Amino acid sequence: MSKRKVSTQFLLSFLMMMFLMVIGCSKVEDAIKDALPIHKISGTVIDSNNAVMPGVTIKLTGKSNAETTTDSSGKYKFENLKNGEYTVTPSKTGCYFDPASKPVNISNGDGTANFKQTTVPLPFDGAASGTYTWDSGTNTLTFNWTNSDFGCSGPNLGSETQTGVTIGTTTMTWVNSDMTWTRSTSGAANDPAGTWTETDDNGNTYTVVLTATNSTAGMASVNGHIFTCGSDGGGTLSAGDYTATCSVSINSIPVSSTYTYEYHLPADAPISSTSSAVCSEVEAALSSNNSGCSNPTCSMIGTSSTSAELNLSCSVSESGITTTLNETCTMSK
Question: What domains lie within the chain, and their CATH numbers?
Answer without folding.
Answer: 8-120+232-332 (2.60.40.10), 124-227 (no CATH)
